[in-house]
Design brief:
The model has no long low-confidence stretch (mean pLDDT 79). 48% of the residues lie in helices and 0% in strands. By secondary structure, the protein is an all-alpha fold.
């Protein structure tokens, strides 16, 4: 049984190429989301005009030469678009100057969210 999590189209655009030699882990889905979004954008580019109606954050993949450090810095902020909750104070995140500290905050938040999920159903 899969669980669907709404994802803004910006974080998948930050993904670098799959790690060598084995690629992304089997359960990793953001690469699949990025591929689907890339296909959609390519189809739109093939039409007479790009149309992002109703999508305030269209998928824009970064060039493969975009520095890894900048990808991580942007991700350390963007991940909060997915893991925030109404009323959650993000000011401490904005005041944190260290990328690694922001990512640690994200990890703690993700662990807290994971603890609230019901246990997965066992396979028969």
């Amino acid at each position: 049984r899969s669980r669907h999590v709404p994802v803004t189209s910006r974080p998948p655009g930050l993904l670098p190429r799959a790690p060598e030699p084995h690629g992304w882990p089997d359960g990793f889905v953001l690469d699949k989301v990025a591929k689907e979004l890339a296909k959609l954008v390519a189809q739109q580019r093939g039409s007479t005009s790009l149309q992002f109606d109703g999508d305030p954050e269209p998928y824009v993949p970064l060039h493969e030469a975009y520095p890894a450090r900048r990808r991580v810095q942007r991700l350390s902020y963007m991940v909060w678009l997915v893991i925030r909750e109404e009323g959650l104070d993000l000011q401490p995140l904005l005041e944190t100057s260290s990328t690694s500290d922001r990512l640690r905050m994200s990890l703690l938040r993700l662990r807290g969210l994971a603890e609230r999920l019901p246990p997965p159903a066992e396979a028969p």
